[in-house]
Design goal:
Layout (H helix, E strand, L loop, with lengths): L1 E6 L2 E4 L4 E9 L6 E7 L6 E7 L3 E4 L7 E6 L4 E6 L8 E8 L7 E2 L3 E6 L1
Parallel strand pairs: 2-11
Antiparallel strand pairs: 1-3, 3-8, 4-5, 4-9, 5-6, 7-8, 9-10, 9-11
């Protein structure tokens, strides 16, 4: 079993930055793929960024060049550095992890990001 706990959300003005963290505990050796998702009120959840063991990354087109996903194996922590934030980035951000990139069976509780114009 794996537990994921996010932190780092908050309220910022447009153009600001935040760094989200997702600390993993438990059977973390089983994890191969991690991701950040977000969901805004009234909208579908979307995958923002993905990190696969070995360093392979994927980004949603709208955050490409502004967000950076990374993973610290020693600390078992996933990060999302968000720069140049826009009001449309406002959402609940959740981290997910799993044994492969098609099976995110572990989820955190989420952290709210609010960007004002």
């Amino acid at each position: 079993e794996v537990q994921l706990v996010e932190s780092g959300g908050g309220s910022v003005q447009a153009g600001g930055s935040l760094r989200l963290s997702c600390a993993a505990s438990g059977s973390t050796y089983s994890l191969y793929c991690w991701a950040w998702y977000r969901q805004a009120p009234g909208k579908q959840r979307e995958r923002v960024a993905r990190f696969r063991r070995g360093g392979h990354t994927y980004y949603l087109e709208s955050v490409q060049g502004r967000f950076t996903i990374s993973h610290d194996y020693a600390e078992n922590t996933l990060y999302l550095q968000m720069n140049g934030l826009k009001p449309e980035d406002t959402a609940m951000y959740s981290c997910a992890a799993g044994p492969n990139c098609g099976d995110f069976n572990y989820w955190g509780q989420g952290t709210q990001v609010t960007v004002s114009s």
